[in-house]
């Protein structure tokens, strides 16, 4: 599809949007067609927050192929809702394997979960091969009566 066709189709279908390149109906939030996002160069950023608390609903290997970050933040801490999703963590490995360059990537989990621990242990060799480092919190921040783990990132 050309850009003009994509533009016309988005104006002729009010109430629909694109999620990972798929047309969706906000009411049902399910893919309606396989209209791909036009290919272009990948986007390089310093820091990317993995969408939807690292849920598998909106993030796949294509996200990691297109959004290339030095740091990815994983914030999920809800096992009942599949957050963080093992599939998304695996998608990082899959997407990064297509970069063609071995840039350092740091994954920053905001919570220590069973899913992230198991993924780390089971894929550690692949992480090293792809130059992916998982950053564990090494500091504690105390604010008022609350304390929590934290890390500092410098650019």
Automatic annotation (TrEMBL):
Q: Which residues lie in Polar residues bias regions?
A: 22-33
Q: Which GO terms describe its molecular function?
A: actin binding; microtubule binding
The record's Gene Ontology biological-process terms are: axonogenesis; dendrite development; microtubule cytoskeleton organization; regulation of microtubule depolymerization
Example GO CC term: the record gives: neuronal cell body
Region span, Disordered: 1-37
Q: Which PANTHER family match?
A: MICROTUBULE-ASSOCIATED PROTEIN (PTHR13843), MICROTUBULE-ASSOCIATED PROTEIN 1A (PTHR13843:SF6)
Record's protein name: MAP1A protein
Q: Which organism is it from?
A: Hemiprocne comata
Q: Which gene encodes it?
A: Map1a_0
């Amino acid at each position: 599809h050309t850009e003009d066709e994509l533009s016309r189709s988005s104006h002729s279908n009010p109430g629909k949007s694109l999620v990972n390149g798929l047309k969706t109906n906000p009411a049902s939030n399910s893919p309606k067609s396989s209209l791909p996002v036009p290919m272009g160069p990948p986007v390089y950023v310093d820091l990317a927050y993995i969408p939807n608390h690292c849920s598998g609903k909106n993030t796949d290997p294509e996200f990691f192929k297109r959004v290339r970050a030095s740091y990815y933040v994983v914030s999920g801490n809800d096992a009942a809702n599949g957050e963080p999703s093992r599939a998304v963590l695996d998608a990082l490995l899959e997407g990064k394997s297509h970069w063609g360059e071995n840039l350092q990537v740091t994954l920053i989990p905001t919570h220590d979960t069973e899913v992230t621990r198991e993924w780390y242990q089971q894929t550690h060799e692949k992480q090293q091969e792809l130059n992916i480092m998982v950053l564990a919190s090494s500091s504690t921040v105390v604010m008022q009566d609350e304390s929590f783990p934290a890390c500092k990132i410098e650019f």
